[in-house]
Amino acid sequence: MLFEDLDIAEPLQRALTKEGYANPTPIQAEAIPHLLRGEDLLGIAQTGTGKTAAFVLPVLQRISEERRRTVPGAPRALVLAPTRELAAQIDESFGTYGQFLQFSHAAVFGGVSQEPQVKALSRGVEALVATPGRLLDLMEQGHIDLKGIEFFVLDEADRMLDMGFAKDVHRIVSALPKKRHSLFFAATMSREIGELAGRLLKDPVRVEVAPQATPVESIEQRIFFVDQKEKNPLLIGLLQQKFLKRVLVFTRTKRRADRVAKVLTRSGIRADAIHGDRTQNQRLAALRGFKAGRLQVLVATDIAARGIDVEDISHVINYDLPNEPESYVHRIGRTGRAGRAGTAYSFCSAEERSFLRDIERLTRTKIREVEHRYHSEEAKNASGAASEPAPGGSKRPPRRARGAAPSPQRSRRPGPRR
């Protein structure tokens, strides 16, 4: 299928062609026709499937078909995203796909001064992308009026709930007009997600394009058994190979992300870290450098990586294995996007061996071992107490009974592609 088969307007087709997109991904092919007809939609899709374009393109087209004078602080479309980085990237997508339209858009999120955001709102925008906290602040200050919203998109709804935004979402929704077109996207489907969708959507079409908690088939997965003290030289040796061009490295802690980035920089590898203790400007600068190719490596924690939507990531490297197997699926989904080939390398020390067993059990995949100069038989064969983190380390959360509600700390999925 081609994008031109989806009745997409010529200016949008031109933008897609310019950006090198000819074929829609499955979520785009299934969702766009329903959205152009004005149907509410519940979309379930893994990260990297192209769900951002699946809602940005129809919103751009439908607003451009019925132009109106923009009113300061009164957008026609609202996209709610859980993280600053994701909000910024969705806003960028409106600019990319709407580059041949006279279309105004803006993003509002915390961590930076609100003054430029207020100025943009005062000029009037047709589409607003926002995180819940900053949006509520600006609403309370009288800078935003949501009574004229025609299109409401709740993106990464499962992340929104995991991060404790349920009450904020309900407050925002209560300020929206009852007559609106609502779109709801999540990477996983749970009882809580179903209940929220039931309250927000009217007779929705459900589109689900990938099995839940299944790694993208195009991703080549490899495991390196290594002692903790040898992880740095192993990582440096891998990154010095030319085919590792744009690499996302995951650590379990913010402190370790900083340490790894510094070690790489001292070794002549262009790297930076992104995590919650860095300022928003530092995080955006690191992300821009990574996207532009000025950085070969971005070292991230799971939470900070939720909004990272960068194409052509050649490799994901798990410097630390996550203590929840679902997070492994989220991480490796950052490469091999939209059918492209991708590679995920994971380092496993003795105290992480039980994490690897959980990952292989969830994914129903035996990850192939790589022979290397730092190989550790101790790590490979660890069992019992030796395969668990030491007390005070990164412990796994307690297992919950079947049917019990998930813990607030439990991590689900990160973010979409274009």
UniProtKB/TrEMBL annotation:
Q: What region holds the DEAD-box RNA helicase Q domain?
A: 1-29
Q: Which ranges carry the Helicase ATP-binding domain?
A: 32-207
The record's region (Disordered) falls at 373-418
- Keyword entries, A-Z: ATP-binding, Helicase, Hydrolase, Nucleotide-binding
* Amino acid composition bias (Low complexity), ranges on this chain: 382-395
Motif Q motif: where in chain? 1-29
GO MF annotations, alphabetized: ATP binding; catalytic activity, acting on DNA; hydrolase activity; nucleic acid binding; RNA helicase activity
Domain Helicase C-terminal positions? 218-378
Record keyword Disulfide bond present: no
Q: Which Pfam families match?
A: DEAD, Helicase_C
The family database entries (InterPro entries) matched by this protein are listed as:
DEAD/DEAH_box_helicase_dom, DEAD/DEAH_RhlB, DEAD_box_RNA_helicase, Helicase_ATP-bd, Helicase_C-like, P-loop_NTPase, RNA-helicase_DEAD-box_CS, RNA_helicase_DEAD_Q_motif
* Sequence similarity: Belongs to the DEAD box helicase family.
Can you say what this protein is called?
A: ATP-dependent RNA helicase, putative
